[in-house]
Amino acid sequence: MSAQATASKFETLTVDTATVPCDGGNGPLGHPRVFLHFGDEPEVVCPYCSRTYVLAEGAKAHGH
Known about the structure:
This protein has one domain (3-55): Sandwich (HSP40/DNAj peptide-binding domain), CATH 2.60.260.40. Helices cover 9% and strands 30% of the residues. By secondary structure, the chain is mainly β. The longest helix has 6 residues, at 3-8. Strand 4 and strand 5 form a beta hairpin. The model is unreliable at 1-7 (pLDDT under 50). The chain is elongated.
């Protein structure tokens, strides 16, 4: 399997909140729900499913 084929199966989502929940998106075949925090970074990757979340332009990474 090529690196390009492997990379294409990971989803990238743009969000506008500083914290995002991820459960793998596959119903009972997903993974435990985790809450990912952006901190000072413009993107965060789920440690279970490698789904990448990108903070939308103009959105604030710090929630408070």
